[in-house]
Structure formats: C-alpha cells, structure tokens
Amino acid sequence: MATETLNSPDQTLAGLYPGFLAALLAGDRRECEALTEQCLGARVPILALYQQLFQRALYQVGEEWQYNRISVGNERLATAIVEGLLNRLYPRVIAPHRRGRRIIVGSVEGELHQVGAKMVCDVFEMHGWEALYLGADTPTAELLRTVLDLHPDAVGLSLSVYAHLGTLLDALARLRCAHPDLPVLIGGQGLRQVGATLSTDPKVHYTANLDTLERFVTSLH
To answer: I need a labelling partner for 141 at 20 to 30 A (CA). Which of 31, 35, 76, 155 fits?
Structure first.
C-alpha cells in the first residue's frame, strides 16, 4: 500500500507560485487571496510565504515592467494586491508577547516602493517588537525628528531603486551623526550589488533578505 506524502512548504510554494504570478499580473485579487489561503492551510510559515510567493512574484512583476512587457498601471495594481494581502495577514503576524522594544522604518526620500519595508516591520512584530512604518518617500528631516521624539531601539531604511542611493547615504550619515549608538538596518532591491560594502560602521547592518533579517532580530533578544 502506497504511503501518502505531504508536500513540504517549499514544494507547496513552488507549486502555487506560477498560478499566483499569473493572477497577480492579471490583477485577480480574489485568486491571489485564495492561493494565499491555500498556503496557510498547508501550514506554510509566514516568512516563507512572504519571500517565496509575495516577494518573488513582485520581483518578476518589476522585471516585466522594466522591459515594457506590462504597464505601470499593472505594476501598481500588483503591488496594491500584495499590500492588501499583507494587511490581511497582520493579525497572524503580531506576537502576543511584547518585548518593549521599538523600531522605526522608512522608505528613503523619493522612494515610492513600500512593500519590502512593510515586510521588515512584520518580521520585527513576529518577534514582539513594536514596528512603526513611516511610509514611502519619508523625508530625512522627518525621519530624524521622529527618531528624536520616539527614541527607538533601531531604525530601518529601505531602498528599492538604485538611483536613490545618494539619498540613502545622506540619511545614513545624518542618522549616524545625530545617533551614533543607534543600530541602523539597510536593505532593499536597490542595494543588491552594493549593500554589503556600503558602510564599515559596526552599527549599520545590511540585510540581504528576510532570513538574514530574522537572524539579526533574534540576535537582539
């Protein structure tokens, strides 16, 4: 008698990814929601769902837009669908036991992408932190003022477009000058080629992906 084998989370995600990507490109919100629920029913961890379904699909959508195979409207709709899914999943993300620690996260000034930064916030929330997202296109002056007012335990800066690297470097320099002991996390698609070499400051931490980020958060416990 053959023994039924259950798919691993990775197998489940790999099997559902093509359909999810197709639904995302078609702007089919209901199908994206149904496939997400299917993943949850198969006990796929939230972090794996974020990386191997949402993030992977959005990277592909971005590439389709970059090569003019879809319109900017299609790209924005896909992004909005994933943001909606993140909002639906938030009650499952937040840890019941809070650690009394806080991080402020912002997408650098001029940067309109925010899904990655929201995922970063969710990883911290999974570990009992209070994660405050300041939104896309966060003016550096407002970021500094908020840090001064709220006294966070860490700050995160997200960069999705390499053209905004100079703005990130300026924000980073101003943060280090005003708060030299405050840990600062940097990450995002715009740093794929240079992130690991961007700073020698031991308080500046480049996180290449959510797995790296989770290990960093765990190290802060």
So the answer is: 76
